[in-house]
Amino acid sequence: MTGLRVEGVYKVFGRRPNEAVKRLRDGAGREDVRPWGTAAVIDADLDIASGETFVVMGLSGSGKSTLIRMLNGLLKPTAGRVLLGDDDLGAVSASQLRSIRQRKVSMVFQHFALLPHRTVRDNAAYPLALQGVDKAERRQKADEALEMVGLGQWGDSLPHELSGGMRQRVGLARALAADTDILLMDEAFSALDPLIRREMQDQLLELQQTLGKTIVFITHDLNEAMYLGDRIAVMRDGRVVQVGTSEQILSAPADDYVAQFVADVDRTRVLTASSVMRRPAAVAFAGGGPRLALRTMRDAQVAAAYVVDRSRVLRGIVRDADAVAATRAGQETLEGLIDDSLTSVSVDTPLAEVFAPAAESPLPVPVTDDKGRLAGVIPRAILLEAMVPADTSTPPKGTPTADQAAVPAATDTDPADAPGTPADATTAAPSAGRATDQEVRA
Questions:
Q1: Does residue 295 sit in the same domain as residue 329?
Q2: Sheet architecture: strand order including 87-88
Q3: Rounded to whole angstroms, what are the CA distances from 376 to 275, 315, 360, 419, 442?
Q4: 347 shares a domain with 325
Q5: What share of the chain in percent tops pLDDT 70?
């Protein structure tokens, strides 16, 4: 598979593009260089990994469509380099560029670009005809691609016999039939009705799980970007202002522009449990006994502890009252004391699906990884706080940050360091710190 790199790329349209680039590098703005040309892309740097779905998002005029046209050589950068694997698209010969487009890069356009006089099958097979593939093989690969997009029975039809969504599927099948490593999609679903558009998004995700292609998807729709992208680049006035996962962009917008862009997003469907979970205040080993569990709860000043086995797999919780009774009775194990009825969620669970278990439990919801190991917990207060959009404004001097305000001034010891709590039994989220509300206090 092949990745893409964009290194210091500028694209200026006009009479003196090189002069415009020189002034932009010296600190001039987009409007300042208008006498010399229109700066469509300014100093773009991107590294798109092989097999990644990378979304470029921005409003009209942000430069995203110009950028994607440089990724397949339709436009040459005024300055900088676009690297497809080891090939510099701005430096290769015309014949090399044609070969790259035929064999390494496919493109799906917004307006289908189907040949009206050719059948659906022939449209899907068209890139293979340009590659010189024989007719029988072209037909076979085209039919396979049409099956992938749900149009296996429409191969003999003409484009005008299909709905808009079906014609867009033919465009996608044409790109798949070419079997290139890289798939460029420029506002590919923007002309579709909302319901059909969502069906196409779902189908693209399903295909990507099977094919693992490098996809660059251009859109002005934030929800589409959040839904499809492994990572997202946000563009404004020709510049890339932020690159990150949907969670990173939603949780920590780079500036006010990005914050306003994401203000109306349903955060509970984008953020996952791993992005808001906190370190549990008390964790006890299943084989440690009730006395050790009590010490862990005492040091953390909580009334219950999460119980894990030696592999850190979550077994349930033990409450202080049960541990006290067992200690008085001379019991040396936690057998019969572990309550396994507490519902856990996985690290990838959207926050929208955490509210139900959080409402049903008096304790923070435990979060587990793909092996069932305890990764963190989500207190109800943190869950509610996560719904509030991030504030990118600068607080007055001396104002404590949210993290500072969340930590009691008298707290000197991290609960995770309490005796009986394994140092590696938990994994805090990037924003994780001390527990904010005595997580398992009765």
A1: yes
A2: 38-48, 4-13, 79-84, 87-88
A3: 10, 14, 18, 18, 19
A4: yes
A5: 86
- Indicate whether 337 belongs to any domain: yes
pLDDT at 14: 92
> How far is residue 89 from each of residues 22, 44, 344, measured CA to CA in Å?
22, 15, 50
Mean pLDDT computed over 417-426: 35
Return all residues near 185 (Cβ < 8 A) that are at least 6 apart: 107, 108, 215, 216, 217, 218
Residue 429 confidence (pLDDT): 36
Token pair in block for residue 177: 């039939």
Q: How far is CA 359 from CA 278, 319, 386, 440, in A?
A: 18, 20, 16, 15
- Label residues 392-427 b or e (16+ Cβ within 10 Å = b): eeeeeeeeeeeeeebeeeeeeeebbebebbeeebbb
Q: What 3-state class would DSSP assign to 266?
A: coil
User: If you average pLDDT over residues 229-242, what whole number do you get?
Assistant: 93
The predicted pLDDT at position 246 comes to 86
128 lies in some domain: no
Q: Structure pTM?
A: 0.69
Range of the domain at 368: 274-417
Does one domain contain both 283 and 393?
yes
Q: How many domains does the chain have?
A: 2
pLDDT over 50 (residue 414): no
Residue 345's closest CA among 370, 327, 323, 311? Answer: 370
Instruction: Provide the 10 A C-beta neighbour count for residue 351.
Output: 22
Query: What integer is the mean pLDDT of 147-160?
Result: 88
The one-letter amino acid code at 187 reads E
Q: Using CB atoms within 10 A of its CB, is residue 188 exposed (0-12), middle (13-18) or buried (19+)?
A: buried
Alpha-carbon dihedral 21, 27, 32, 33, rounded to 10 degrees? 0
Between 259 and 33, whose confidence is greater?
33
CATH number at residue 21: 3.40.50.300
Does residue 281 share a domain with residue 261? no
Structure tokens at 398: 């001396």
Do 235 and 378 fall within a single domain? no
Is 393's pLDDT higher than 80? Answer: no
Q: Out of 211, 230, 265, pick the residue that ends a domain.
A: 265
Query: Residue 430 and residue 202: Cα distance in Å, rounded?
Result: 29
Query: Measuring CA to CA, which residue among 344, 268, 275, 276 is closest to residue 307?
Result: 344
